[in-house]
Specification:
Shape: globular
Strand content: 15-25%
CATH class: Alpha Beta
Number of strands: 7
CATH topology: Nucleotidyltransferase, domain 5
Largest sheet: 5 strands, mixed
CATH superfamily: Ribonuclease H-like superfamily/Ribonuclease H
Radius of gyration: 18 Å
Order of helices and strands: HEEHHEHHEEHHHHEE
């Protein structure tokens, strides 16, 4: 059953409402997690984990403007990504490749990317904040927040790092697999990308388990 959510709970910008009570309990390494690329037709799914230091005033000022990556321009995301990396206590990236997505399914592959992002942290997390999903593979205590990337600053920062890292990967892949426009569409199903698939077929970056119903194309 779908959980009812009151949009009035979404603040003007993500804040530390969920992090601060955990810090007050002595849990200083609270990791916000989010992913990018879940709905793409090609390329990996990326995840990021971000641990902010328990310094509310300094962090809020240092990361002013941070929010859900989908609400930001590419230029703003790139600038914020640098600030997040500088201001964080620790951050980590993880990803699952297209063949892993095909083998595991997108849900399990996304969780694998989350686990790899957590493993990449130089300071192991004590508590997890996630955007909607839970991570059963982790024994850490965790909270899944509806619209988490719009409510938790840690999750919003993870959203930005995952998105910028994945975009950079897809821009690099365009040189290896020209003609699909990966530098522009980042592997998502734009009209031009779908047309390129129809004309050229799939490349090794494409998720062969994903169906393109509109064009009647199916990989695999």
């Amino acid at each position: 059953m779908r959980v009812r959510f009151d949009p009035a709970l979404i603040p003007d910008c993500p804040n530390l409402e969920f992090e601060q009570p955990l810090w007050a309990q002595g849990l200083r390494l609270v990791a916000g997690l989010d992913e990018a690329g879940r709905g793409a037709l090609a390329g990996p799914v990326f995840a990021a984990a971000v641990e902010l230091p328990p310094e509310p005033e300094r962090i809020t000022a240092a990361l002013a403007g941070a929010r859900d990556s989908k609400q930001l321009s590419e230029k703003a995301r790139e600038e914020l990504a640098r600030r997040i990396q500088d201001a964080s206590a620790a951050w980590g990236l993880g990803w699952a490749e297209a063949d892993e997505i095909d083998r595991l399914g997108i849900a399990r592959a996304s969780r694998l990317a989350f686990c790899r992002a957590l493993d990449a942290l130089t300071e192991p997390a004590q508590y997890l904040l996630l955007d909607y999903f839970r991570l059963p593979e982790s024994k850490l205590p965790q909270t899944a927040l509806v619209k988490g990337d719009q409510r938790s600053l840690s999750i919003a920062c993870a959203s930005i790092l995952a998105k910028t890292a994945r975009d950079a990967r897809m821009r690099a892949e365009e040189e290896c697999f020209p003609g699909y426009g990966f530098g522009r569409n980042k592997g998502y199903g734009t009209a031009a990308h779908r047309l390129a698939i129809a004309e050229m077929g799939e490349c090794p970056l494409h998720r062969r388990s994903f169906r393109l119903r509109d064009e009647g194309l199916f990989f695999g």
